[in-house]
Amino acid sequence: MKDMKPLHISHNPFFSLLLLAASFSLQASSSSLTGSFKDTQQLLNVKATLPNSTLLPNWLPNQNPCNFTGVSCKDDTLVSSLDLSYTPLDSDLRSVSSFLLTLDQLESLSLKSTNLTGTVSAFSASRCGALLLDVDLSSNALEGSLTDLSSFTSTSCSSLKSLNLSANSLDFSNTNSTGLQLNSIESLDFSLEFLDLSSNNFSTEIPSFGDCLSLQHLDISSNKFHGEIGNALVACQRLALLDLSSNQFSGPIPSVPTGKLQYLSLSGNDFQGGIPLGIADACLKLLHLDLSYNNLSGSVPSNLGTCSSLEYINLSRNEFSGGLPIETLIKMSNLKKLVLSYNSFIGGLPDSLSKMTNLESLDNNLFTGLIPESVGNCSQLISLDLSFNFLTGTIPARLGSLSNLQDLIMWLNLLHGEIPQELMNIRTLENLILDFNGLTGTIPSGLRHCTNLKWISLSNNRLSGEIPSWIGQLSNLAILKLSNNSFYGRIPPELGDCRSLIWLDLNTNRLNGAIPPALFKQSGKIVVALVTGKTFVYIKADGSKECHGAGNLLEFAGVRLAQLKQNFQQKSLQLHQSVWRYHPTHL
């Protein structure tokens, strides 16, 4: 047997490299385990600060943090994302952040709606990890000053790209009030791409956003910012979304960044004057334009037609005048939703209206004349609201070809004739509201096929005949208003089969019999599918002799509670030579 020779590893390059690689692997594994243990400990420290020890039950010692609720990891070891949204932490931000910000690999942190209290300066007091990009602290009860916002984003969290501090507002009625505030900020310089400060009741003039070349999303809506905007945003040339709605801004519409903007909302302010011609320069990529609820006037500029990418335009609740700018609007080939209501556009509805294939609403203007038959060519139409006008003639039978229509609303006009039988072809129809016209004849029998109907309102017309029993087959019907007509005969007991019916108004007819007892169980209920996401008001008479709208339930999309007094109690609406006063009662 030969003697075995010793293996001289030091002279063998292959084995040297193998040992070196193994050494690095062990070091990396050890480092990873150390980092994982550190992350576990920091998360357990957070849990220890919570008043409710039963929260986060799987956050346990000696466990991989990647298995903890709300945690996502890199390489199954190090915490890269933490999302505890809607978890009732009931804790102080400083206590929580002092541990979370030490997570070295953390990129995203969401503590949305977690009942956090304390001040935002808690974040400024700690240095974020170098990889932290996204922080969401929205919908909490945070307070304090944001005067150090610039240093927060440029020093404490220099890598931060997205910051959401929305819905943390408290009372700002005096200088000692708490809540998120902007005080004495002349310029905000930061490298954020996303900033949401909405719903905080900031009560100041808008600061200059200085060096904001990276900013792509800015939402400061639903606050109390006031004054003119001036050049505060001119440097933000990469903005794709700008939402300044529901504030108290005044003066002319400001210059906005051009080239990148896709979403622009200036609604719910006190902007005055006309739409500037220069706005066309900012609409190369603009998809959404909302200028509603202001004091804008004049005509719609023709060069707005160059905004060919626009899908949504809302100019409602202003003082625009002149004819309907149809030739401008039909150039917008991608337009899906057009809202021009509550202005003073005059004249008739042109036949070329049919080219607006997604037209939604033209209510409460001063349109006169006939409803053009060509509206029946708007094949994609979902909602047609021509209420509050001076329209005459009959309801076009060709509307029955609108196979996607859900809302047909023409109340308070001067329409006459019968309700077309052709409406039976609109199987998608949900809301048929034709009150306060001069319509005659009976309720079309074909409507029995419109089984999606939720709202039928035909009051204050000259309709006659018996109330059809087939209405009881409309299982989705929630509101039936037939008052102030000439209906006769018995109240059909089949109405008791309308299991969704919550509002029945049959007064001032020639009816007999009893209201079906089954309906009493449903009285006062709210049908979720009917009202989800919608605001309703009920019009009550205030003693005026010609309050024609009394007794009507109306939908007002976008009405803000803060504006109700201004818009519906202080202002009277001159219409049809009558004074209307709106007294809202929310259901």
UniProtKB/TrEMBL annotation:
Coiled coil: none annotated. The keyword Secreted does not apply. Residues 39-73 form the Leucine-rich repeat-containing N-terminal plant-type domain. InterPro entries: BRI1_island_dom, Leu-rich_rpt, LRR_dom_sf, LRR_N_plant-typ, Plant_LRR-RLKs. Residues 1-30 form the signal peptide. One of its GO terms (cellular component) is plasma membrane. Its EC number is 2.7.11.1. It comes from the Eukaryota. It is found in: Cell membrane. It catalyses: L-seryl-[protein] + ATP = O-phospho-L-seryl-[protein] + ADP + H(+); L-threonyl-[protein] + ATP = O-phospho-L-threonyl-[protein] + ADP + H(+). Keywords: Cell membrane, Glycoprotein, Kinase, Leucine-rich repeat, Membrane, Receptor, Repeat, Serine/threonine-protein kinase, Signal, Transferase. It is a single-pass type I membrane protein. GO terms for molecular function: protein serine/threonine kinase activity; receptor serine/threonine kinase binding. Residues 524-567 form the Brassinosteroid receptor BRI1 island domain. It holds the Pfam family LRR_8. PANTHER family: LRR RECEPTOR-LIKE SERINE/THREONINE-PROTEIN KINASE-RELATED (PTHR48056), NON-SPECIFIC SERINE_THREONINE PROTEIN KINASE (PTHR48056:SF18). This is non-specific serine/threonine protein kinase. It comes from Liquidambar formosana (Formosan gum).
